[in-house]
Each structure stands twice: as structure tokens, then as C-alpha cells.
Description:
The chain is an alpha/beta fold. The protein has 17 helices and 16 strands. The strands form four sheets. Strands 3-2-1-4-16 form a five-stranded parallel beta sheet, with helices on both faces. Strands 6-14-7-8-9 form a five-stranded parallel beta sheet. Strands 10, 11, 12 and 13 form a four-stranded antiparallel beta sheet that branches.
Amino acid sequence: MAKVSPKKTPMPEQPAEKRIENFEEVPFGYTDEMAIAEAKRCLQCKNPICVQGCPVEVDIPGFIKLIAEGDFRGSINLIKENNLLPAVCGRVCPQEDQCEKMCVLGKKFEPVAIGRLERFVADWESKHGECDIPVIPPPTGKKIAVVGSGPAGLTVAGDLAKNGHKVTVLEALHKPGGVLVYGIPEFRLPKSIVQQEVEYLEKIGVEIVTNFIVGRTRTIDELLEEYDAVFLGTGAGLPWFMFIPGENYKGIYSANEYLTRTNLMKAYRFPEYDTPIVQGKKVAIIGGGNVAMDSARTARRLGAEESIVIYRRSKKEMPARIEEIEHAEEEGIIFNFLTSPEKYISNDDGWVTDIECIKYELGEPDPSGRRRPIPIKDSNFKISVDTVVIAIGNSPNPLVAATTPGLDSKKDGTLEIDSKSMKTTKKGVFAAGDIATGAATVILAMGGGRIAARAIEKYLETGEW
């Protein structure tokens, strides 16, 4: 056996000083030669535990072996048997906490770059024209409404359409993709990539209807009169706030609004696109997750001289991906760890000018497993700002639950579901993704969608609830 390289094949990317001036994708991706070299690092384990780390059960050694052999078409087709969004997952999934974390090679060296290889073959297919469409069985006569076109909804739609069912996706916004189009910035996930994945679903028979607000345009009960089953994948689009003094001052935004304006509405290309956005010079971002990193890096590209992340724990506890934190550091993002806002201060016109913060120290771990932040007495200080973006989390929008009798939800706004079948408390209605789990990752939403699709299939066959 040839000697295995201890490190992943590096992936070329834009230098930091260049990329903060544009919204183009940061990593360039592998060349054919790089991908083959990286694929040959895979040990082709007889018991591939990496697959256990994949929520959608992709045959990881199988698709990597085909890359090593130069069969890129075969590789992407194998991935798509289980994952219809490979170009998305290869870019934004936290492989380091899932498949790559389980990689046997990673016990001694760096794990195989599974995510980079998945992205490579998805991009290869895109560059080489038409994709292979699977053979679809004859129509079953069954109709399913999928509410929401984010990762969970698109997964359910694809899985059911491949089995011959008539699937209609109902999206509230004017473009499909959910969080993939409104939440994740262009420099991390180009919107053309999302569009390609959606077009693939349309090619296998999925109908996409936009500007359709379930709970307003039609209710769940009305959909159940027309469809044999309904799947809810409406995500978590309701932003959290801290409810501290001054939070309603001008210049303070939720990350949802800030990123939606930038990503979905293309505000970074104003006035070509008619969506203005604040372009602060001293921007503070509250939070430490991927949304906070996206907001901080977006602010930098919009011209911020200082983009400051304020996070109440240390760098070690940050929930953001390591790759995103590293990119943010390279781009000059300033980090204020063990710090949290206490109140906001404004000028006479009501525009935010300062944040009064307090310092923290870490105590014993809390239920999340992270050490609990404890405020330090008399440690208050001010940070001068002109814009604030609050990125501390989201809950599901309550509209669907509020307009659907018999659909039970929890205190946090997520729906009551059976985690083994994704059944809700209302017959014929299933749910997965952030509306069921709270804000989580793209791939976990897809994994829930895969479980729901199987359960819907069984329900369509038996009618049993």
C-alpha cells in the first residue's frame, strides 16, 4: 500500500485581503488532480464507520473510491442515491463533527476531506452539463404537499418524487431554498448552486410554488382536503432578542433581517438590486455561532472598518465551525470573548452609538456541556458602534401551529413529533428540520427529512397513523 499523506490536500482559496472586497466564494475547490490525490488517502475500511456519522447515510467509501479511479460521474450518481443536495452539503455541512470525525485515518492523521470531495464531484457534474436523471416509476396517484423549501423540505420532496408520488413544494418567499438562500452568504454558498439543486428536483418531477404562505394563503386543514399527506419544513425564522435596555434603537438589527437583505434580496449589489442595507463602519455582532460569523464577515464586505464579535464564552466554546472562525480571523474580525451586552446607548436621534458590556468568567459546565458564563462584578465597559446585529438564535415562526387545530407545539415553538417517524400530533402531517428540532444544521434537517419521507411512504401504503 502506498504511503498515506498525514494531512488533507489543501484547497486553494481567495486571499483574505482580496475576499473582503467581494462576495465571491472563498474556497476555489479541488482540481481533478487534487481530488484524486485526496481520495487515495481513504483507507477503504471494511467497516466504514464514517457512514455512521452521515445523517443521510451516503456511501462515503464508495463515492471516494470512484473519485480515486477517475470515475467522477459514477461518484456523483452514487452520492445522489442518498443525498440530493451534494453541492450544498459539500460546502456548509459540519463534516468535522460528523463523517470526518468518525474517519479511521483521523485517529492518527488528519481525516479524509470527505466534504471537499463531495463538493468536487457535485461541481464537476455542474461544469460538465446534463446530470443523470434516475428512472422514476409510474405515478402512484398519491399527492404530498411539502411546506417549506429548505434542506428538510427539499430532501422529502426528492425522496418521494423518486418513488413516483406527485410532490408540490409550497414556499412562502419568492425563491426556493429556505435558509440556503436567505441565511447563508454568497461567499459561503453561491445561490447559483442552490438553484441548480432545485432545478434537479424539478427535473425528477417536483413542483415548486413560491409566494405561498401556509396559514394565510391556505391552512393545513385545507391542504389535507387535497393532499394525502403534508410535510412541514418551515424552519426557524423567528429571531431571538435579549430584551435589554435600548434594544429598539435605530441601527440594531436581527441577523435574520441583516442576512436576508444581503443574501436573498442582493442588497450588497444596491442600487442594481433595489434593497438598501446599512453599511456601518463600526459593527458589533452579538453571538458565537455560524450565523454570527456570517454576519461579521458580511459586515466586513459591506465596508465595516471594525467588525466586532461579542460572545459571552471563550473561543473554545463557540458553536461556529472552526473553518468559519478561522476565515473570520483571517479577514480581520475582532473578537471580544467572555463579554456580553448589558444595555445600548443612543444619540439624541435614537441611533445606537455605544454598547455597555460586562465581562464574564467561566464556571462549571451547564446542561449544554459548555462552561457556564458568570458575570464579573464592576467589570462594565463601553464599545463604540454605529450598527449592531443580534445573532443569538431563532425559533420557528408560530403561524402554522397557530392556524392548525390539533397540531401541538412545545414552549420553545418547536412541534411535538415522534422522532422515529417525524409524525406530528395531527394525522397526516409530518415535520422535520428546525421546526421540529430548533435551529440546527443543514445536514441534520436533511437527515430528519429522510426519516420523514420513509414514514410518509409507509403511511401512504397503510393509512395507519
